[in-house]
UniProtKB/TrEMBL annotation:
Superkingdom of origin: Bacteria
Upper lineage: Bacteria, Bacillati, Actinomycetota, Actinomycetes, Kitasatosporales
SUPFAM superfamilies: alpha/beta-Hydrolases
Keywords, ordered alphabetically: Signal
UniProt keyword Acetylation present: no
InterPro entries: AB_hydrolase_fold, DUF1023
Name of the protein in question: DUF1023 domain-containing protein
Leader peptide range in chain numbering: 1-27
Organism: Streptomyces coryli
Domain DUF1023: 122-291
Length: 347
């Protein structure tokens, strides 16, 4: 890189961090990414011979298919924390196992989740969760929403509202549709080094791939799911894209994105169509798209040179307003998730 260009890039990176800090609040702390198998995996492996740490979702699905319904229920009752977080285990069994875990937790902050459809729930660290809206077992169309920074087991209300709004919009056109909000990775807190680098995305991407392959093994929609990726969630989706097969995701939608750790959509090597959107009032649009020494997430997904299909987010306001009623963004998310691509309005 020429000295003048290097200097310009360094200045852009500095301006980017300053813009983020000034707009959204700076957090200097570094998060410890929660990775590895579900809680209680060793005991589960000792009892079953199936090791959650090394088994693929397809192998898990085949194992549970070999059990009778009574044997499945017994296993979930004995190992609820593991079965509830085991990609490839039957959906209803995971929901029941997590309901039991929440009931047994004696944690007042978690009791509010008992009446929800919780497909994954790991209380370790800041906690991770996946929640279902609709009926996954009957769903003809499925959307998976990957939220961004500050989303965890207890700081989850905004993502919950977004998932509920999307499923309500989809159900108006297709009652047999479902949404999963997947907060199954350690997100950045505030905006700082964690939000400006790909470290947490690197840790979260394999977890997202496993989850999506688990859905492929246990559900039978008419079309593969649509993956909707908000803010830092789009960084995770970008890192996961190449490892998602054609049956795992039909569409990858990056919105309010700081970048996907790629120069172009083609660089993602995705087996899915890549889409992008951002509204004009979203502060993320003021952050320079740079990538230097691990800082920054690369090209702007809504730029013409990136090569994603962009669409309108008219009516949405700010960084989190994309699911508001009457917005183009919500209507377009719905059309993409239902494979009604001709209804998607361009930017």
């Amino acid at each position: 890189m020429q000295p003048r260009r290097l200097k310009k890039t360094l200045i852009s990176a500095a301006v980017g961090v300053a813009a983020i800090a000034g707009t959204a609040g700076f957090a200097a702390g570094s998060q410890t990414a929660m990775t590895g198998p579900p809680p209680g995996a060793a005991a589960f492996a000792a009892d079953t011979g199936l090791d959650p740490a090394t088994s693929t979702p397809a192998q898990v699905a085949r194992y549970f298919d070999s059990l009778s319904p009574a044997e499945q229920r017994k296993l979930a009752a004995e190992h609820p924390a593991t079965v509830g977080n085991l990609d490839g285990a039957p959906v209803k069994l995971r929901l029941a196992a997590n309901h039991q875990s929440l009931f047994d937790s004696r944690d007042g902050q978690l009791e509010r989740l008992e009446e929800r459809k919780v497909l994954a729930m790991d209380p370790r660290g800041r906690g991770q969760i996946a929640e279902v809206f609709g009926d996954l077992d009957k769903a003809e169309h499925i959307a998976v929403l990957v939220p961004g920074s500050d989303t965890d087991l207890r700081g989850y209300n905004n993502a919950h509202k977004q998932g509920a709004a999307l499923q309500k919009s989809m159900a108006k056109q297709d009652p047999d549709s479902a949404v999963v909000v997947w907060a199954g990775y350690t997100t950045p807190e505030g905006v700082g080094v964690d939000a400006a680098t790909g470290r947490l995305a690197d840790a979260g991407a394999p977890r997202l791939v496993s989850f999506m392959k688990g859905l492929s093994a246990t559900t039978d929609p008419a079309d593969p799911p649509a993956l909707l990726c908000h803010s830092y969630g789009s960084v995770v989706c970008g890192k996961a894209a190449a490892d998602l097969g054609p049956k795992d995701a039909d569409d990858i939608v990056a919105f309010a994105s700081p970048g996907m750790r790629a120069h172009t959509a083609a660089d993602l090597h995705a087996n899915a169509q890549v889409w992008a959107a951002r509204n004009d009032s979203d502060w993320i649009g003021n952050v320079p798209n740079v990538s230097l020494a691990g800082l920054g997430h690369g090209a702007d997904p809504v730029s013409a040179g990136f090569g994603a299909k962009d669409f309108s987010a008219k009516g949405a306001e700010g960084h989190d307003g994309y699911f508001a009623k009457g917005t183009d963004s919500l209507a377009n998310f719905t059309s993409i998730a239902l494979n009604d691509y001709e209804e998607v309005t361009p930017r």
